[in-house]
Structures are given as C-alpha cells and as structure tokens.
Design a protein that fits this description.
The complex is a heterodimer of chains A (598) and B (315). Helix content of chain A is 31%, strand content 20%. With 598 residues, chain A is an alpha+beta fold. Chain B has one domain: MetI-like fold (Orthogonal Bundle). The radius of gyration of chain B is 24 Å and the shape is elongated. Classes of the chains: A alpha+beta (598), B mainly alpha (315).
Chain lengths: 598, 315
C-alpha cells in the first residue's frame, strides 16, 4: 500500500514482543548526544516491530521510516496535497502513463554518499520484483528508468489515479543492495544502519524501552532545530500521562480517553483529538474464504441487519470513547472527508431493537425453548455467537460489555474469548470466530482500504493470509474496485468509491461503530511549531508525513531540565533520611550510654 | 458455650460399658482433638477476629443476588446512571466510567475472588499433597524424580511463569484457577514430604510394617491421619496467597474479563485513569476488600497452623 498512513491493526503493546530483536544495538550514526543536545521525547504505547521497511507494520515503525526516508513527492501539512520532495518537479506524458521526475541538486544520504536517480529507480523496481509489503501496492504496475543522475521516469502499465504522487520510502541502494539477494534475505536484515535522507535517522534501539533518532545534517530542507528525538515506550497509558505532566516526555500518543478528558483542564498542555479516518468496527464472519466454522446465521443478511440495529452506537460512542472521534456510519477510507458518502435515510440501520426483534421473528429465528436465546429457523443451533475481544485495546472490555447487553435484548447470546492482537490475527485468518471488534486506519488514497474487501484479499489458505477480515466479497464490489482503481477523473472516482462504501454498508458484515480520534497531548513549554496534519483536524505526531518533527523549534530557556530537578529532590529526600537515621542512632546511643552510666 | 465443648466427649453415646472397637476409639480421639483445636482458636482473639471478618464476607458473597441485581453489572443497563459519581445514598460506593455501581461490582466481585481463591487453593493443595505424600512415602527414585520436579517449579520465578501461562492459555476463570494451582504447589509438596519422612521413622510405623501391614494400610491408617492437620493448616494459609495471585493476574489484565472480580475492578480503574484522576471510590473498595479478606484468612490460618503443626506447637 502507499506509504505512511498505516493499518493500525497492531496498536497497543503485547507482552510477548519481549523477544523481539536485540536489547541494545549501536548504530553507525555519529553520536551527538552531548548534554547540550536539544531532545524531543515522544511517549507511546507501542514498540517498533522492525526498523526494516520490508518487514514492519506497526504505527511506530511507520513513524520511524517517515522520519528516516524522504520520498520523491511530499505531502502538504495542511491538506495532504502532493508537493515537491526529493523531486523538485515532474512532468507527465500526454497519455498520462509516463512521468518524469527531476531530483534536487546536491542530495546526499546521511552518511555523505550522493543520493541519485539510481537509488529511487532501484527501490521502485526491486520493491515491485520482490513484492515488499509496504511498497508493492504502489509499485506493482510501475517501471522506473534512470535518465541521468538527477532524472528518472516512471511508467505505469495501467492508468493510475495515484500518480504523480510517489510516496514510497526510498532506501539507500549502496546499503540495501548487499542485503537484497532475495526477499527472504532482505527480511532477515535488521536495518539498523541508520542511513537515510529524512530529517532524522535511527541511532540506537532498546527493544521495548526506547529508540533514538538523531538529526540528519544532509536533509534536503536543512538540519532540523531539534538534535534528537527519543521515542519512549510505555506499557501503561496512565504512566505515560504522568510522565507528560511531569515533563519527562514532550508529547504523548494514544492517551486513554478518560485521561484525555482530564488533561483538557491542565495548563501548559494542549490536547489534540486528531482525525485520520481510522475507525472501529464490529465484524461478522461472512465465511467467504471458506476456512473455519462461522455461525451459519451470520450468512443471513437479516441477522446481520438485526445485529446492526440492536447496537446503540451513539451511546457507545459517548460512553466508551467520551465522544472523542466522530460518529460516522461507514468505512473510513481516507482522512479526507470527501470520500465518505451519506447513506440515504431509508437505508440507514439505526438503533431500533424492536424492529430488530421483529425482523428476526419474521425470518423464523424463534426462541422455542424460552431460554432467552433464539434458535435457527425450524429449531436447531442457538444464536450463540463466539465473540473475540481484543485485550490490547483499553476499550475492548467496555465495548464488549455493551454489545453483549444489547444483543441479549434481541435474543442473541455471546460466548466471549479474549485475545491479544497476534492471537486475534490468527483467529481471524483461521475463521474460527463469529464476531470481533477491531479497527483500521486508512492511507490518504482510498484505494488500499477499499482493496481489503475484494475477493483477492480473502484468506483461503491460513498460511498466506489476506487482508479481508470481513470474510465477505462480491463481484459487484470487485468490479467497482477495478473501475475506481484506474479512473483518472476525480469526481467520477469519488462517485464510484461512494457506491462501493454504500454497498458495503448495506451488507453489514462490518458494523462501523465510530471513527476513532488519535488522542494526543503535548507540552507547550519547551517547543513551538506543533503542526496538525491535516490542518485543524489532524493529529500532531504519527500523522501522514509527520511534519511536526522538522517544524519544532526549542523555546529559549523553556521548560528547564526536569531530570536535574528530580535528581535534586531525590538528593534532598536521601539527605533528610540519612540525617534522620544518623540522628536516631545518636539518640539511641546516647540513651544507651546514659543507661550504662546510671 | 466454650466451657461446654469438652462435654462433647462425655455425651458421646458410645461411652459406657460396651466394649468399643479400635476404630471408635480413634474417632473419639479425633473428635476430642478437634474440640481441642476449636478451644485453642477460641482463646486466640486475633484468630476469632479473622474468622468473624471472613464469615461476614462469605455472607455478603452468598447474599449478593438478594442485595443487588446481577443485570446492573452490564453496562448496557447502566446508561441512565451518572458516570464517576462519588459515593452517595443512591450509589453507596459511587459509580465507575460506564456508570456501574461500584458497590454492586464489589458484592459480585467478592464471589469471584473468593471462589477463585478457594478453588485454586484446593487444586494447589491437591497437587502438592499427592506429590509430597508419594515422594515421602515411597522414597528412592520416585522421591528423587518428584523432588527434582518440585525444585524446578520452586526455582522458576512464580509471577513470570504465571503470566506466561495465563497469556498462552485461553482466557477464563478456570484458566486462572489452573495457573495459580500449578504454579504454587511446590511448597506444600515439600512440607508434606518432610512430615511424611518423620512419621515414617516412628516406631509404631516400623512395628506395623514388621507385622506385615501393606503400603495402603500404612498410608491410610498411620501416615495420612498424621499429616492431615498439616494439610489443613497449609490450606488455610494458601487461600490468601491464591486470592492475591488472582488479584495480581487480573490487575495485570490476564484475568477473566467477562466476570467482575476485585482484581478486575482494580485493573479497570487503572485503565480508565481513576488513579491519576483522583477517583478513589473506584479502587478503594476492592483494594480494601482484598486487604481485609487476606488479613482475616491469614490471622485465622496462622492460629490454626500454630495449633496443628507439631513443630510450631509451644504448649
């Protein structure tokens, strides 16, 4: 898929990632971490799974790559518009199938090697041949050719509405070539070289604790004002918030919803509920992939509609996420709202448990034995669904509790199991579930998110899983998908996408519960220049191209050094304790002496 | 009341001129010693305080269905309640992030916490007794193998093992019971093995053996009765540890999320920023509940152990 905007399938921390990678790894980058270095500290709840851009998939990893690898075209902070990046300009051929990019003069990698057209062409062509997960969706139909050191052409085999946007991470050929024998060789590469072309490059990584990125003096916009960025991994949201309040970190990512409300009244801290099009959904097993043993009742659209109507989404949104985010009925396919259709009133599946009960009665799902749970038409299995709850989500339990209660009202029982994200991924691939609640965050272009619900993406072999976790597909949807994929007229493409989303909504294999907010909070005492992307509604970090890091400038004399004041405090307490102990001993001693004297 | 206790012997119907079987005599002796234990406990004020507190909590847990409606535990039914309401007459312990009454959760949670604590203890004592008795009684290579196994479980740090097990197994109430049971039996096993070894050395056991008593007979008539008090004492002392472990695992988010337990309440309070937000009523009741129950069982258990464990007996 197109770079950046990640599929946030794997938020939160898993205890089991402890085994990942080496504990402390030094990198080749020069150490500039002098005491005077200006350090920005970012708190988050997730570690990078792998710094290797052909392996990782977590939000944390995407942020690291975005900082380390510049792209041919950049994205405007305000509205994601395609703007010059490594390429200062580009021209399209008349047929719209070939684009010529002109690189900036004097581009260099952070290690001083020149960055040429050869690097970009190698990245694009190799990622296509080796099917690198994070590049392939963009480069699948592309062929890049070197014209000269500063010029390259990219030719696409089919019309591609995403071009001339070219936002795949360009990696240094002189480093990566030696590791890229085959895609498996490449996957084994730890990618700790720390050589990049973005504003910051990876210097050191301590698995499950923190990783450090240092300023790249060769960045094409110039060296950033911040000398280094430290990403600190917290295992607990409350601890992260405490660290933010005490000034230990400058910005916190994914603040728990209640803390977020509490922080709003804190002075010197700004809260941002950034919208990125990400959403949380209740998914039902459509069994289209043929694996597993989903409940047969869920293949009846009447049952799916009844479930959709039994859920009081507004109440869930208000109570569980405290209204942070947006109430939107349909899939989020992009952070830009223009892709989101309005569902006609007569097709909306609003909260109406009475109608849901009536529909189930009419369809023959009756509760013949009177135990409060309906059975399949004509008797037989009960409507008792296996519900997979996410333990890595703070809200997982609350959402399950509400849904369980509401479904009980329409005679549907749940059998709840809890899984961490890795386990849940496996359960979904195996098809051994009926319902689960999880979420996605789309890229800027709607294409990748839409592609996940095509028949191609079904998991038909658990060894090579696809993205289609609705486990549903239709020919009509696939046809529309191919059409929009090659439609160059934007208005027509938007209309096609609206049709697809409406069709998907009506099928109800997904009940979109709400659109998430990326809850962030930052301190205002040490840095200025926090940049929301897109302007006004987006988050400040972990955005699409994360412009904040480069834009930040330290405030003169701001903040002060908190570690020294903590040190001082500890010193004072220790001193007082020593005095007390020594004093106490002296008193005891003198008493003893006086006792002896008597 | 306490003065009457010895009379239990006197009013025993078998007392009289009728010749009595050895078994009846043995039973009388046991009854008498049970009465002695009770007397000992009655004289220990702390033990009685523990017992009273424990009985109170047990009654509360038992009466939960009459005191509060189970449906109030589901957030789907608490939509009209205020969230984070401080304690009031309507909500004795206040409400939490979804409008649950903390008092109702506390009541129903006590059931889960006590149930898991008891079941896990039974499992742990069961495994520990079986292994300890077998090892001590048979000796030789059986002893060696079983004790190496016990040593292995003893040296593996308890909490990491429990966390790994809880993470790997499917989440649920019985998983927690299983995890606590199979991680905490070694001390019981060692204790019992030691006791069996001493009992086995006693003269009357040797005598019985030389008279041709079989293993089963020895075990049933001589060993088991002599270690039973010890099993009882270590059971009582294992209960608070099991309850605490359940709380720990639930607090770490490894408990059964579908049932409300005290540890689960603490976990939910932490996850929903009750601690940093100063909403003390969300975590004080389960926290204090755990402290009181654990303290009560420990007080009672210590006194019982002092009376029953021959090595601790001072009188």
């Amino acid at each position: 898929m197109t770079t950046k905007q990640f599929t946030r399938r794997f938020c939160g921390i898993a205890l089991t990632t402890a085994a990942l990678g080496a504990t402390v790894v030094a990198s080749t980058a020069a150490t500039t971490a002098a005491d005077t270095a200006v350090t920005l500290t970012v708190g988050l709840l997730q570690d990078i799974d792998s710094p290797n851009v052909t392996v990782g998939y977590t939000v944390a990893a995407y942020e690291t790559w975005t900082l380390q690898y510049a792209t041919l075209t950049d994205k405007a902070a305000d509205d994601f518009a395609t703007i010059p990046g490594l390429a200062e300009s580009w021209d399209a051929s008349d047929d719209g199938l070939t684009f010529t990019y002109h690189l900036r003069k004097g581009l260099k990698w952070s290690d001083g090697e020149p960055l040429t057209a050869e690097d970009t062409v190698w990245t694009i062509n190799t990622s296509r041949d080796q099917e690198w997960t994070n590049h392939f969706a963009t480069t699948v139909n592309l062929t890049a050719t070197v014209v000269d050191d500063r010029t390259l052409t990219i030719e696409t085999a089919v019309p591609d509405p995403k071009l001339p946007t070219m936002d795949v991470y360009i990696v240094p050929k002189h480093i990566w070539e030696t590791h890229a024998g085959t895609v498996d060789d490449l996957a084994a590469y730890d990618a700790l070289d720390g050589v990049g072309s973005g504003p910051f490059t990876l210097q050191e990584r301590k698995a499950n604790q923190e990783w450090t990125m240092v300023a790249n003096p060769n960045y094409w916009k110039g060296a950033p004002a911040v000398d280094q960025v430290v990403f600190r991994v917290f295992s607990d949201g409350d601890a992260m918030v405490t660290a933010l309040k005490s000034g230990e970190i400058d910005v916190a990512h994914l603040v728990p919803s209640q803390s977020f409300e509490d922080l709003k009244s804190e002075s010197g801290i700004v809260t941002v509920a950034g919208a990125q099009g990400g959403f949380t959904e209740l998914a039902m097993n459509g069994m289209a992939g043929g694996l597993g043993d989903g409940h047969p009742a869920l293949q009846d659209i009447e049952v799916r509609h009844a479930i959709a109507r039994a859920i009081d989404r507004q109440s869930l949104f208000d109570r569980v996420v405290k209204g942070q985010g947006e109430m939107i009925d349909t899939l989020g396919v992009s952070p830009s709202p223009e892709w989101t259709p309005t569902i006609p009133a007569d097709q909306q599946l609003n909260y109406d448990p009475a109608a849901a009960n009536q529909a189930l009665d009419d369809a023959g799902y009756l509760d013949a034995d009177g135990n409060g749970v309906r059975e399949m038409p004509g008797g037989g299995d009960e409507l008792k669904f296996r519900y997979a709850e996410r333990s890595d989500s703070v809200n997982g339990a609350a959402i399950r509790e509400l849904i369980e209660g509401w479904l009980k009202e329409i005679g549907i029982a749940l059998e709840v199991s809890v899984f961490d994200d890795t386990q849940l991924g496996q359960v979904v691939y195996d098809g051994t579930y009926d319902l689960f609640v999880w979420g996605w965050t789309p890229f800027v272009d709607p294409d990748p998110m839409l592609s996940y619900f095509t028949c191609d993406q079904l998991t038909t072999d658990a060894a090579s899983p696809g993205y289609n976790d609705a486990n549903w597909c239709s020919e009509e949807y696939d046809a529309l998908y191919l059409q929009q994929n090659q439609e160059l007229d934007r208005a027509t493409r938007i209309d096609l996408v609206h049709q697809m989303i409406t069709l998907f909504y009506n099928e109800s294999t997904y009940v979109v519960l709400y659109h998430d907010a990326d809850t962030q909070a930052y301190r205002t005492d040490r840095f200025t220049g926090w940049t929301q992307q897109p302007k006004g509604t987006g988050p400040v970090v972990f955005t699409n191209s994360s412009p904040t890091y480069f834009n930040l400038t330290p405030i003169e004399g701001g903040g002060g050094d908190d570690s020294s004041s903590t040190g001082l405090l500890i010193g004072i307490i220790a001193g007082v304790l020593v005095l007390l102990v020594v004093g106490g001993l002296l008193v005891v001693r003198s008493r003893k002496n006086s006792d002896e004297r008597e | 009341m306490s003065e009457r206790i010895p009379e239990a012997e006197a009013t025993s119907p078998v007392i009289g001129s009728v010749p009595r079987s050895g078994r009846a005599v043995a039973w009388d002796r046991r009854r008498a010693s049970a009465a002695g234990v009770w007397r000992g406990l009655r004289n220990d004020r702390l033990a009685m305080v523990g017992l009273v507190v424990l009985v109170l909590f047990a009654l509360l847990a038992f009466a939960a269905p009459w005191l509060s409606d189970e449906s109030s535990l589901s957030a789907a039914n608490t939509g009209d309640n205020p969230i984070w309401a401080p304690p009031s007459w309507e909500f004795l312990f206040g409400t939490d992030h979804l409008g649950h009454s903390v008092a109702a959760q506390f009541l129903w949670g006590s059931r889960i916490s006590l149930f898991v604590g008891l079941m896990a203890t039974l499992l742990q004592i069961g495994i520990g007794s079986l292994i300890g008795l077998t090892a001590g009684f048979f000796g030789g290579w059986v002893d060696s193998v079983l004790m190496r196994l016990t040593d292995w479980f003893l040296v593996v740090p308890f909490l990491p093992l429990a966390i790994v097990l809880a993470a790997v197994l499917e989440r649920g109430l019985w998983t927690i019971i299983l995890v606590i049971g199979i991680t905490s039996w070694p001390s019981t096993a060692r204790l019992l093995r030691a006791q069996v070894l001493t009992v086995r050395q006693r003269l009357y056991v040797d005598r019985a053996r030389s008279l041709g008593a079989g293993r089963l007979h020895l075990m049933r008539r001589h060993i088991l009765p002599n270690v039973t008090p010890l099993i009882l004492a270590s059971t009582t002392l294992a209960v608070p540890i099991s309850i605490l472990t359940e709380t720990t695992l639930s607090f770490l988010g490894l408990g059964d999320p579908t049932s409300t337990s005290w540890g689960g309440m603490l976990n939910s309070a932490k996850d929903n920023s009750a601690i940093s937000g100063g909403r003390w009523w969300a975590y004080m009741p389960p926290g204090l509940g755990i402290v009181f129950v654990v303290l009560a069982v420990t007080l009672f258990g210590r006194a019982l152990e002092e009376i029953l464990d021959p090595r601790l007996r001072q009188r």
